[in-house]
Amino acid sequence: MATHTTTPFDPEREIADKIIAALEAGTPPWRKPWTGGRGCPFPRRHTGESYRGINVLMLWLEASEKGYASPFWMTYKQAEALGGQVRRGERSTLVVKYGVVEREDEDGTEERRPYLKAYRVFNAGQIDGLPASFIQEAEPAVNLGTQPDEGLEAYFARLGATIETSEDPRAYYHPARDLIHMPPLVTFHTTQGYYETLGHEAVHWTGGSARLDRISRCKDRAAYAFEELVAEIGQCLLFATLGLTPSIDQSAAYVAGWLEALARDKKAIFRAASEAQKAVDLITGRCGATVAHESEVAA
């Protein structure tokens, strides 16, 4: 008689897979310095308390993917207690709770053991009948009047990449079309945010098959995570080469997240930095190592 085995439920692996999968859709939603697009509000419990740690990333990803504008998440029973009803067919999102339980051994010794509890929540946008305070509309794109930097415009123009701009509120490199897509500059909160994002995508562009051919090696999720690491380090190196100050605080948090995903490969950061330097060398070889004229990126 054939025996059937089931894979044990591993919430940590499910979370890691979810985070790495976000790379396949372009820049992760927690690094979005422009307005408009699908919702990605900081996630909160139905009580208003903010989520922490890995749950923030998980719920951010889900909100971005599904277009939820409300920051509020709750269990099925919590929704019912508020007079709400989860709509038929809606799927829940995994969150986890870490804690420590204290136990006393037979010899009287107290022992503290960590535990992980997984449970499922729904966004307020999946629930009918909630009080109006839980419902929010998606963020529209806003013309903030952000101005271009003429020196950096001329610099990236020399790259030779096709840079497409549309109302689509996403920034990404499209390997099949071999182009960089950017949201409108005026929808970015800062001029620097626009050019840092463009620099990030320009590093991806260097990995196209006609150039350094890194992208073709992205056959699995770990490879996508590595490519994102290359792009972020490359963007920082490029700005430093140009004598500009990259937003290290934001980049450090971003890079740290992908290093955690690549934790099994202790040498990943060194290989990524090497690939990033090759990308920057290609960019500066085409565009130069300085901006054409005295330029200060407005904050």
UniProtKB/TrEMBL annotation:
GO terms for molecular function: single-stranded DNA binding. It holds the Pfam family MPTase-PolyVal. Residues 152-274 form the Polyvalent protein metallopeptidase domain. Residues 13-122 form the N-terminal domain. Signal peptide: none annotated. It comes from the Bacteria. This is DUF1738 domain-containing protein.
